[in-house]
């Protein structure tokens, strides 16, 4: 049996995850990446999306992450995220309301709209809604 790797997901406010896991899959800015025990060290930035991992018992767990960085070492993955939420912490109705607000902002013809900010809000809302509905990936 393969060895487990330590996963730590940290935000400025709290530790979100700190446990030994079998595998980590995360949304890197250049695409999703996976890390197993013994991985070559690397550092990457993260995009908005859903990180998932298999816990000690083999159950898949999901965490929404909003930007930040991930460092992979042979025996540990550290994620420093701007924000992160376990799937059970996500309020689907709140995410849906945020999606609708962002969509309205993007469709408005007002000149003072920050489109980059509205697109990021839309992407966060979609990722939260997807993970709350069963952990799916962002589409």
Could you describe the 3D structure shown?
This protein is of the alpha+beta class. It folds into two domains: 5-87, Sandwich (ATP Synthase, domain 1), CATH 2.60.15.10; 90-132, Single alpha-helices involved in coiled-coils or other helix-helix interfaces. It contains two helices and seven strands; from the N terminus they run E-E-E-E-E-E-E-H-H. Strands 1-2-5-6-7 form a five-stranded mixed β-barrel. Strand 2 and strand 3 (31-35) form a beta hairpin. Helix 1 (92-107) packs antiparallel against helix 2. The chain is elongated. The termini are far apart. The mean pLDDT is 89.
Helix content: 10-25%
The shape is: elongated
How many β-strands, per DSSP? 7
Mean pLDDT: 89
Q: Please report the first level of CATH classification, the CATH class of the largest domain.
A: Mainly Beta
How far apart the termini lie comes to 34 Å
Uncertain runs are none
Instruction: Round the Cα radius of gyration to an integer and report it.
Output: 16 Å
The number of distinct structural domains comes to 2
- Corresponding CATH superfamily of the largest domain: F0F1 ATP synthase delta/epsilon subunit, N-terminal
Largest sheet: 5 strands, mixed, barrel
Q: How many helical stretches?
A: 2
CATH fold name of the largest domain, please?
Answer: ATP Synthase, domain 1
Report the CATH architecture of the largest domain: Sandwich
């Amino acid at each position: 049996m393969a060895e487990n790797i330590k996963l730590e997901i940290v935000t400025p406010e709290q530790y979100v995850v700190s446990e030994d896991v079998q595998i980590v899959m995360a949304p890197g800015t250049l695409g999703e990446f996976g890390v197993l025990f013994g991985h070559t060290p690397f550092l990457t930035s993260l995009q908005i999306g859903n990180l998932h991992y298999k816990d000690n018992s083999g159950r898949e767990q999901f965490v929404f992450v909003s930007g930040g960085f991930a460092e992979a070492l042979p025996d540990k993955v550290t994620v420093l995220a701007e924000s992160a939420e376990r799937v059970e912490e996500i309020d689907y109705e709140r995410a849906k309301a945020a999606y609708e607000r962002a969509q309205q902002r993007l469709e408005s013809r007002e000149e003072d709209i920050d489109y980059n900010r509205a697109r990021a809000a839309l992407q966060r809302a979609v990722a939260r809604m997807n993970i709350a509905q069963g952990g799916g990936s962002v589409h």
